[in-house]
Amino acid sequence: MARIPAAERRAELVAAAVRMIAAHGVEGATTRRIAQEANAPLATLHYCFASKEVLFAAVFEHVAGLYREVLTRNDVHGDVPTTAGALLRGLLEWYVANPEFGAATVELISWGQRQEGRQAEMVYNEAFATMRAILETAAGRPVDAAIIEELTYMMSVLSDGFALNWLVFTNRTAAEPQIELTVGVLDAWMATNLGDVSRPARGASTVSPAETSRSLASWVSVQ
Amino acid sequence: MARIPAAERRAELVAAAVRMIAAHGVEGATTRRIAQEANAPLATLHYCFASKEVLFAAVFEHVAGLYREVLTRNDVHGDVPTTAGALLRGLLEWYVANPEFGAATVELISWGQRQEGRQAEMVYNEAFATMRAILETAAGRPVDAAIIEELTYMMSVLSDGFALNWLVFTNRTAAEPQIELTVGVLDAWMATNLGDVSRPARGASTVSPAETSRSLASWVSVQ
Amino acid sequence: MARIPAAERRAELVAAAVRMIAAHGVEGATTRRIAQEANAPLATLHYCFASKEVLFAAVFEHVAGLYREVLTRNDVHGDVPTTAGALLRGLLEWYVANPEFGAATVELISWGQRQEGRQAEMVYNEAFATMRAILETAAGRPVDAAIIEELTYMMSVLSDGFALNWLVFTNRTAAEPQIELTVGVLDAWMATNLGDVSRPARGASTVSPAETSRSLASWVSVQ
Amino acid sequence: MARIPAAERRAELVAAAVRMIAAHGVEGATTRRIAQEANAPLATLHYCFASKEVLFAAVFEHVAGLYREVLTRNDVHGDVPTTAGALLRGLLEWYVANPEFGAATVELISWGQRQEGRQAEMVYNEAFATMRAILETAAGRPVDAAIIEELTYMMSVLSDGFALNWLVFTNRTAAEPQIELTVGVLDAWMATNLGDVSRPARGASTVSPAETSRSLASWVSVQ
DNA sequence: AATGAATGAGGCTTCATTCAT
DNA sequence: TATGAATGAAGCCTCATTCAT
What we know:
4 copies of one chain form a homotetramer.
Chain A: H1 6-28, H2 31-37, H3 42-48, H4 52-73, H5 80-97, H6 99-112, H7 119-139, H8 145-169, H9 172-193, H10 209-217
Helix pairs in contact in A: 1-2, 1-4, 1-6, 2-3, 4-5, 4-7, 5-6, 5-7, 5-8, 5-9, 6-7, 6-8, 7-8, 8-9
Chain A binds a DNA duplex through α3.
């Protein structure tokens, strides 16, 4: 009966939903559980959100916002490889620090993919857009879209793969070296491929070391 | 509905369960749907499997077997980097060729992680073991466990990350370059960390013995 | 939503309720829908009417008023058979012109019959009273109550039966002959029981004084 | 847990549904109430009927069957007017003897009219078909379809109108004279109009008494 | 006085499971 | 042994109503 602004109630419910999805999966995140977790009567959930679907849409927005925030927070304002590495590291550390969010995200992605509305895509696209913006700022000048695309794609692949593995094993002691390893993979790829604007889309780089370093030189903005 | 021995029914039910999980997710793979898909009475499901959980355990075994088979089928019997690249490529191509199974696997992993029995770990561990065995055979002799560990870890991270992205976008035209890119990332890392810089991403290694220097010298089996 | 005095709101809410009952039946005429249709906040409905039941009581009054109006409007100020026929015809044509209201009325009658307060009876009794008054005026002098009773009863039976059939089939092309037929039945009965055999069904009576013999002689006002 | 043949259970549920509809209206005939009235757990209702809608379809069939039975039982195998009068009287007496069924029927008709499937029409059409068959047999020879149509239409109008009035007032002492009156109305109309095959569809009969009796003579089968 | 916010009760339906044969 | 029949628990959602302002 406590009079709580609707906006606040909504936020509470979304947070509770994330927690329940993390704990019991999308399947187990029932309206009852979510409402109870939010300390609200079941009917209140439906007062704030017309349907579970609508609530979950808000959850998607929330998760997308979290990603944006994590990425923004980890922008080191360095050159492209440095920034990309920092972003990836930020994501991985965030997963390790918030195991529930990793779990919730994986659940949501795979659930959202079967729902109407392509909400899973939305989360990805927003994350891609944020990465892209940060990386373009880091480059300090317009850069080949294809390369940015590849870079963001690999960052998402690596962070997702890391997250799935972490979700399964949640081995805290292994996490740190795994982060290093994963970031190292991105670094290795950037060292080998970054800066080569004319690099063919397919196949491993055949760029000679000399060429690689030169083009890389024009990439790493000294800012 | 002809009376069919329980043993046969079990296999049918597992297959039906896999199909239903692929089609509707773990959430949507209800006992009713599975039984119907297997052309069996609902009660038969519980006659063959004590509970849904037990049925899903069998499903996990089945999926683990699929992974083993995909990996085994893609063993090119080359040196380590070549073999690792081929295994990864095999996984990614398998995901692209069977979009439902990618979805089903992700669902199962994240579901199994919440259940008793660590079944998700089992699937991973079995896949790791298979990769390890193949790579050790490729190496031709016992090798540093840590390096194999890193390699298999990265292969799983990359294939999982790829799978998740593919699950969301299922963009067939983008898939091929993404496969190249993802395999290329593994290559770059192997080249950097194992020493092989110029091996082409696809096909048998054309790396010259000279280039295969340093760490790789002790690694790449020329077979 | 501008603040509107309660008195005005009451009328709006009753009108909205009638519309919603017509459109969705008593079952579907929820407080929410009624409030929204009246462009009023939901709480206002309960501010204006203690309960849904009270609102529906007002709806009954409204419907009773509609009947009174339809009957009054169709008073042709002829003799008794002519007037009775015109009243019945007026009702039937009203049903045909307002299919939703026929539905709403049937719904309300059968709903009201289950509620406390005998509101369905009230609507009938008011309609009977209106018919009685019109017919007594048509007779031009006090007449045998039993005959008026029979006449009004049959008018209600015929109009209700017509309404129910029309409600089910809503066949516009069939409606006109059905009206003729139904009015014709009343005519036939009046002719048999009141003596007027040949009065045309429609328009003013052309019955000759001579034919208006027997019981009707004491009945039909020549005015 | 008592093992009851499904068919029996279904019949019990349908009967319970009719009783609940009569008592609380279609609106108040909730699955819970129906199940309880049938002494069955709620889930059993959905085991026997896929949905409330399906249950209600069965209820419609049941009611249609009752009508057929009442009509058949009241076939006196006389000539057309006698038979028609007997059928109508049978219906009215049935309503008086089973007030719940009248109530349930009115509810169902007005509810069914808003649902998919035109089930209300089905009930009517079946009743019309039964009447038609009985009357044609009574005529002893093929007769003008239009006249049978008019007759059956009026029988349904009169019985429906009677039922609605009875539903509202349920005045047992008034019922008997009302039955006489209602049947009398049909009789009067038949006496005036029956047998006139060429009678225009519109307006009261202008048939002279002589003509009427003659054509009637050819109608009333002496059998 | 008027209304956003909130809610207990109950709506229909589906679930995994067990019973009785 | 297999399987139709049956069911308690729980799913999401909407209802009329009341509370607090």
